């Protein structure tokens, strides 16, 4: 039997004969590349995958309410409710681990960013900051700065390896972008890109969707595809060789993400945790963030749709939501925990149904761009390993300091380029005000500081601080105290040197 005949048979057995519907119309070259794609598919598992996806999409969520409990206080740490001394202790522990080379960061950047609607990786997006920096650049500069902070605490030189999980969609453009930008000043050898697996998208009646006459509509297998990708690409071996014991995993789209946050790392390490999650207080009961909690004594994330509204709306004595630990895809893992997951639990990870608009070729060969969801993508989630943790901890942080994701295109009410940009600028305004600077508008009137950093009306002040100058607001007093600065103003390395060289408390007004 030829390879083509075997593929035909396997597709027939899986109820997917339509995949080769346009075979007679394909050129030699198209046939070759289609066969190559089909060769990489798990054809034996295709029937289960397709039927399972259709079943899961039709199934209703089961209520988890009877067994649900909030995270127990002994597993909980807080950036807002801990005293300065405790926070400093965690921070120093984190910086020590970083300077010992035991900390790596891992970026989840394999998503397709369909809601944002751009045809390049989300990390390359410029949200319109005065500096024009992209998400990738902001993140690279934060790594740079936190390395510097660790170096200056310990008096030695360290590096934080940056693992970047990409997919078929994002690998090549991400590689090119980093190269073109000279790796944003980081050592190329410390940036390790690898690719996650792809799986077919399926219609609601369990048929594989074709993206082209000779191409299946594939999608990355969710950010929980990380655990398979770690194995496929020998990432855990790389971590071991470099001496990396702790990994901070995060999403590409959170403009406020604190990479390798020393406080979070220090907290998790001092608790002896093997797995940890940063959370923010849920804004309102129906907010579409998962909640970190326990179900039947096991730590996990539950979605709003998985519990009854009455449960989501439960409030404690102080009026706070009982289930308020909003998951922000910001996690700590030890290498040995990841090894354990890779060896023992990877195959047990849940599959989630994501209903999406998937462009496809219809049975007449027409390209269709659906306006309504038409396909199922089965995804694994990065947090689905929490139940396997032996010592799981949760760390609460302030949303305005640490979480503002870019999910949607402008025009949406939440999580858009505008909201992301405003969150960052508002944070920098707060830092400047705290450091004692006065910001002036174009008429040289003082912009009144508000506690949120957002102006009462209109957009926040165009005042931006380079992550190369400050990672979490540190070191600004000496640069900004008593200054009057006219916006727009970018505090970058050159400006910082200039300000440092000038007398403080001067009346001078500078602007971009
Ligand atoms: P989202 O679930 O927000 O998905 O990803 P997305 O792909 O960015 O956007 P939409 O849903 O298509 O609009 C959360 C994080 O997980 C990563 C994303 O890159 C983002 O950092 N991710 C998602 C992966 O790394 N792989 C995936 O298969 C899916």
Which labels suit this protein?
binds uridine 5'-triphosphate; Spore Coat Polysaccharide Biosynthesis Protein SpsA, Chain A; alpha/beta; 3-stranded antiparallel sheet; Seminal Fluid Protein  PDC-109 (Domain B); 20% strand
* Total helical segments: 15
Q: Report the sheet-strand fraction.
A: 15-25%
CATH homology superfamily name of the largest domain: Spore Coat Polysaccharide Biosynthesis Protein SpsA, Chain A
Distance, first to last CA: 71 Å
Identify the overall geometry: globular
CATH architecture of the largest domain: Alpha-Beta Complex
Fraction in helix: 25-40%
Query: Low-confidence parts, pLDDT < 50 over ≥5 residues?
Result: none
Order of neighbouring strands in the sheet with most strands: 2-20-12-15-11-3-4-5
Task: Write a structural description.
The chain has 15 helices and 25 strands. It is an alpha/beta fold and 512 residues long. It has two domains: 335 residues, Spore Coat Polysaccharide Biosynthesis Protein SpsA, Chain A, CATH 3.90.550.10; 88 residues, Ribbon (Seminal Fluid Protein  PDC-109 (Domain B)), CATH 2.10.10.100. The chain has an eight-stranded mixed beta sheet with strand order 2-20-12-15-11-3-4-5. Strands 1-13-14 form a three-stranded antiparallel beta sheet, with no helix packed on it. Strands 7-19-16 form a three-stranded antiparallel beta sheet, with helices on one face. The protein starts with a helix and ends with a strand. The mean pLDDT is 93. The structure holds uridine 5'-triphosphate. Uridine 5'-triphosphate (UTP) binds next to loops.
């Amino acid at each position: 039997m030829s390879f083509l005949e075997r593929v035909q048979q396997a597709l027939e057995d899986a109820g997917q004969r339509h995949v080769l519907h346009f075979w007679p119309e394909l050129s030699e070259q198209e046939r070759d590349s289609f066969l190559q794609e089909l060769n990489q598919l798990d054809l034996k598992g295709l029937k289960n995958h397709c039927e399972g996806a259709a079943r899961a999409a039709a199934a209703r969520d089961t209520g988890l309410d009877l067994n649900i409990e909030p995270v127990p206080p002994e597993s909980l740490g807080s950036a807002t409710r801990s005293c300065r001394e405790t926070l400093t202790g965690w921070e120093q522990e984190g910086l020590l681990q970083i300077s010992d080379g035991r900390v790596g960061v891992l970026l989840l950047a394999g998503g397709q960013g369909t809601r944002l609607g751009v045809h390049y990786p989300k990390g390359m997006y410029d949200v319109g900051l005065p500096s024009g920096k992209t998400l990738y650049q902001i993140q690279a500069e934060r790594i740079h700065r936190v390395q510097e902070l660790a170096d200056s605490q310990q008096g030695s030189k360290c590096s934080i390896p940056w693992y970047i999980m990409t997919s078929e969609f994002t690998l090549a453009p991400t590689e090119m972008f980093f190269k073109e930008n000279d790796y944003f000043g980081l050592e190329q050898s410390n940036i390790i890109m690898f690719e996650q697996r792809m799986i077919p998208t399926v219609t609601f009646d369990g048929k594989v969707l074709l993206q082209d006459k000779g191409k299946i509509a594939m999608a990355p297998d969710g950010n929980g595809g990380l655990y398979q990708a770690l194995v496929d690409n020998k990432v855990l071996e790389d971590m071991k060789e470099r001496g990396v014991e702790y990994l901070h995993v995060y999403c590409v789209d959170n403009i406020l993400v604190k990479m390798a946050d020393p406080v979070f790392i220090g907290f998790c390490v001092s608790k002896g945790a093997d797995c940890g999650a940063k959370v923010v207080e849920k804004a309102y009961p129906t907010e579409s963030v998962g909640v970190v909690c326990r179900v039947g004594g096991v730590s996990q994330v539950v979605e709003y749709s998985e519990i009854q509204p009455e449960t989501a709306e439960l409030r404690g004595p102080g009026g706070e939501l009982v289930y308020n630990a909003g998951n922000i895809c910001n996690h700590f893992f030890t290498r040995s925990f990841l090894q354990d997951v890779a060896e023992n639990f990877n195959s047990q990870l849940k599959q989630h149904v994501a209903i999406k608009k998937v462009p496809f070729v219809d049975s007449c060969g027409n390209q269709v761009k659906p306006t309504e969801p038409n396909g199922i993508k089965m995804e694994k989630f990065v947090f689905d390993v929490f139940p396997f943790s032996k010592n799981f901890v949760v760390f609460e942080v302030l949303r305005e300091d640490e979480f503002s994701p870019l999910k949607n295109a402008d025009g949406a009410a939440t999580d858009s380029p505008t909201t992301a940009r405003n969150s960052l600028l508002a944070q920098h305004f707060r830092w400047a005000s705290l450091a004692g600077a006065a910001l002036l508008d174009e008429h040289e009137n003082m912009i009144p500081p508000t506690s949120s950093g957002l102006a009462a009306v209109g957009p926040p002040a165009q005042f931006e601080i380079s992550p190369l100058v400050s990672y979490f607001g540190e070191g600004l007093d000496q640069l900004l105290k008593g200054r009057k600065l006219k916006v727009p103003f970018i505090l970058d390395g050159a400006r910082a040197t200039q300000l440092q060289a000038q007398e403080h408390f001067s009346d001078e007004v500078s602007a971009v």
